[in-house]
Amino acid sequence: MYYEEFGYLAGLSIQHQGTSKQSAIIYGNGLNMIEIIVKVKIMDKSADPVPVEMTKDEMKKSIFLCDYQTGEKIPFDSEYGGTSDWRVSFNKNDYLGALEYSSSRADADADAAPDSYIFSEDGYNYCSLYVYCTKGNRNKKIAAGIAIQNVGEFKTTFSGTNTVNGSNGAPFKAPDDIEIRAIEPYRYTLDDFSMNTDSSGLSSIWDHGAHLYSLTGTNYYLDIRKPSHKISSVKASMPSGSIFGSDYSWYWIWQAFDCAADYGKNYLSKTLTVRFSKYEFPCKHTINKQPGVCFVRIDGHCSVMTSWEFYAETYVDIIDNFGNRTSPVLKFDGSKGIRHTGFRNNSRDISESTERHVSNHGVPEDIIQHITDSTPDMICGVLSQDDNNSGFKPCVNISPTPEQGVIIDADFLRTLRHSHQITHVICSVPDALSHDVSDYQAMSDRDGLPYLLVLWPSLQSLTIFPQTELDYENRPYIYGQYDCYSLIRDYLLRENGIALNDYPREVYSLGSGKNIFEVQAPEEGFVKVEDTSLQAGDILVFNLPSTTLQHSAVYIGNGQMLHHLPPGLSCREAYSEKWEKRTSSVWRHNNLIIK
């Protein structure tokens, strides 16, 4: 053991890797790391002292970072229960690098230091540590430290340490620090992205006696153009080759395909199937000829009249090389192509649906307390809406490694839903593992419920929604995601193939005097029905006189309707005299009018 040979500490210093600069800027997003080098030189206690080599494990057990002024240690990512926004790790991730460096120091080596955990010819032991911050607008002056068994701690803080350095030495004082400033995570704008294209002709195809010809495949590449920023990882919102838009004009057809899941597979030959009516035309097309996330439009002429029109959109989750998250939205615009129109609101802010459970848009205190009491294990539970009382109910985490994440039993959850109106599943997730939430997405898809992930210890939150189709009944109410209008959209698309555009709910918020359906119905192809005979697919718009709530439902036949009122679950209900009196208008889509 190195400490058994300890004679005295000949050197302890700290610097940024590969630069002589004193200060660095990173993003405070919990992912962006910066590499710090700590140099330690220990001399043995022989008459002619020589440097002592430390093993990798010895360095990891002994070396730490601390606040330059106070000496308070910066917690490692494996330590739970702390409140510090700053964290340090011995393991780097994919988001390593400073945004910029400044303020040179004369005593630092501008050349790159040796690899992690190296005993160098200069007698120094070099140790790499990786620092990150979970919040923006934070600044930290950091010193190095080493805890030597049977000797004590040495720190390069402003005031030093009282540990005697060697048998005849004095208290150790060798001030040395680096500075890191964590800024707010970057919020991308439309101007930060480029959309490049390339096109190629495709072979004609036959199916069921129909001929699709004069085909062109156009690739649209979404890429970051902000200087020094680039795409690091991509998560697609749908399987590669999925259609997210279609348009037609007599014998012409245009269809849009999401190929984001194939990001990084350069010059990939892909089969994209143009579909309408009973026809399917598999088209061979090469994607990913340029950098960026690829989306494809195929257009062509058909020997039979085409049909199937819906202008829809898709999105892709992107993390850049600094760990900033964004979710660009791509919209199909028919013959005009594919456009980047905005960004999906899936940020780490608490979701709209849980605001009534939350004070000051934070995580509820009872959940925080349960997480704190359970550390180092992660927790799970549910938020339920029973008898108009919202509450958190803890559940059992059945993960074999509970300190690393959560697994909740599907059968238990299914049974619980028989007696409780569950709106969310709650899971705590270590900050260091928050870059990959695919397991939680799988459970959300499995259970058909939103998962609210509380990152620990930063207490940031991330809401994951099911990417599978939900049943019409028993959906939790989540404004803008699962509400009366989204239920109508899903029903008409599944049952009648009618795709409605989505709209920001803020325009039709409570008290605005507007109803989303009465404003947008004509543009979406609906006409107002004046007679009293209803048919399946009709949209019912209600005035609820005791409230300012704007509400709609879809009539499904046999005197039944589907609707979704907050804060409860969606349901099937009789279109009774009570609802008939509250009906202000009835709308029917042109495609459902019997001519």
UniProtKB/TrEMBL annotation:
Domain NlpC/P60: 452-590
A GO MF term: cysteine-type peptidase activity
Pfam families, per the entry: NLPC_P60 (PF00877)
Keyword Protease: yes
Gene3D superfamilies: endopeptidase domain like (from Nostoc punctiforme)
Keywords, in A-Z order: Hydrolase, Protease, Thiol protease
InterPro entries xrefs: NLP_P60_dom, Papain-like_cys_pep_sf
A biological-process GO annotation: proteolysis
Top-rank lineage group of the source organism: Bacteria
Family, per entry: Belongs to the peptidase C40 family.
UniProt-recorded name of the protein: NlpC/P60 domain-containing protein
Native organism taxonomy: Bacteria, Pseudomonadati, Pseudomonadota, Gammaproteobacteria, Enterobacterales
